[in-house]
Amino acid sequence: MSMSISFRLHCFVFLGAFLLFTMEPLVARMVLPLYGGSFHVWSTTITFFQGILFIGYLYCHIFAKRLGGWHLALVMTPLVWLPLVNWIGLAPPGDGDPAWSLLLQLTIHVALPFGILATTSVIAQSWFTRSDTSGSSPYPLYASSNAGSILALLAYIALCEPLLGLRVQRSLWYAGYIFYVVLAWRCWRMAASNPKKVDPAIRPSSDIKGSILVSWLLLSALPSAFMLAVSNVITLELGSVPLVWILPLVLYLLSYVFTFGRRQWISPTLLHAFWPAAVVCGLSSLYFVDIGNLWVFAAHLVALFALAMVGHGELHRLRPPPDQLTVFYLAIAFGGWMGSMAVSLVAPILFNRLAEYPIILGVFALTILHLRKGDLLGALRRHPVLSSLGASVALALPFLIRSNDRGTVTEVIYQHRNYYGIYRVLNQPLKQDKFPNLSEEERYDLGQRQLVHGSTIHGSQVLHPISRRIPTSYYHRAGPLWDVLGDAKKVRNVAVIGLGVGTCAAYFQEGESLTFYELDPAIVNIAQNLFTYLVDCPAEVKMVVGDARLQLEQAPDHSYDIILVDAFNSDAIPTHLLTREALSLYDKKLALQGTLVFHITSRYYDLAAVISATSAERWEALGKESNEVLKSFQADAVYCVLRRKGDDVSALHAAGWLSLEGYQNMSAPWSDDYINTLRPLYLMLGHPPRRNDR
Prior knowledge:
The chain has 694 residues and is an alpha/beta fold. It has helices at 3-31, 40-63, 69-76, 98-118, 120-131, 140-163, 166-192, 210-238, 242-260, 268-287, 293-317, 325-350, 356-382, 384-400, 440-445, 481-485, 521-529, 533-536, 548-552, 580-589, 608-615, 650-654, 678-685, and strands at residues 411-418, 421-428, 448-453, 456-462, 493-497, 513-518, 540-545, 560-565, 590-599, 619-625, 638-644, 658-659.
């Protein structure tokens, strides 16, 4: 094969993979607002894309010998409706499972272009084998494909999301697809003009054994499933944003590059000596230890990379000859699809916790032991120091590092998992070391009930009947929220976006009206049946289930005295509630002299800069943190208040609220078209800004 043909085929494969994996975060970013920042949006999206990838490979397998000019006509069909549609403003899912609604939307809008791009690698390798006369292996093309995938994902989080809006992203993607069509035509023409003469005496190799096929399926399914399991664990903490999605996927694809490239980057014996310790560290981080959140995330990612390297290394070892290429890729695609479906669609039905994480590791260990038990023993003998050290660290980790709250004595009275998260309701007694004179029964009676989403407490309530109307956690009366909601001198009509356990209801009196907008029906059930804030509230309490932006449109204009947006936390960031378009909606629904409040307490994101920049044109923005010494059942809280420019904010200044004007240049304004979550993450983790004291 001439250098020019080989080079163009590598460019063709690289570009196809680049467009393919740019589409994944781009589409997920467009649909995320419709699903309230759900941590399952990414896993469902990945499942869809892997399903279409399998269909693309199946198409190549069936028609591989006839792929030619008519395939180029199919390649050009997406040009009819691309660039990709902006889904902001489309109807949200109905009362059914949001996952199936999302899959339907994806099928309608992006199945065809993604399916065509999914065929690129196999088609290129088919053209390669039909035109190559040097006996070169086509498998390096697979490494080029994964290299393009990795570069696309890194470019998206480093360049596309921080610098470009969705409209520009879609237009650039469309331009890239046009170039892809041209390059496909050129590659096909050059391959067709240099056909390889096939010796009729050469026959295809024998049929694939069933055991080999099963091994292919398991070795592709388990890393794919574990990649999504790790993504879910991290997303529960950091939120559904491209950065969180992409890092596990990059490591997953990087393992393909390392294992299917021309050279071996890591010794297989070294991998087999290391991976048991790596996965034990992942399990320890999931169940036993708290080593600082970022280190916990790193432990999960190391476990993922180790597992993927070993699994995909075994795939490479068991690869078939080139004449069975399409069957091999078909099995890989089907296995990856099955693995992702098991995590995104099956696991939420079967388990009320992230039980798939240890199950995947257990099945993987059994698979590798079956395939390479002799080699595993050899690895341990060749690397005794590394193996012993890794095993010792993994086993000692839970004991060397302080335990997190999972070790605290609690009573789990309810646990539920759905599309929007994993919820636990806990009865938390008073700690014995702080109240040594109380009996165990008294410590429970005087304890609290908590709603935990992932590892974030979404609300709590004192268990004792006398004290159960006292607002706790972020909403305590010594905190910033009291300055806004504590004035009960006038009758108020208030909207709260985000229910939690309904703690805000403790601030309202008879004659007042309180409307909660909550996306997840499960939260409504928990707040109404396992907590009593709503039941005990003397005000008129209304409940509206659905996306807040869409439901708030139905409310009368200028009807609310206060709108409290209480949906930003460590678990998910519904970014569409913090854009210019969202602020315009709040402005429309607020009464004259109305107040807009944002609860932005977060371990990872400093959203004050975003609020300041986005609201600068029309609003006066102020912020306040709870700096007092906290008592039992209280938590640090950060709030922002927006008042229309010209409104009197002297009372807020007197209460210690500070202007956020100094934040305005620390972030670009957010809109439905442009959102950059890396900036608030950077501000929180690297350089927390100082508020302007006014």
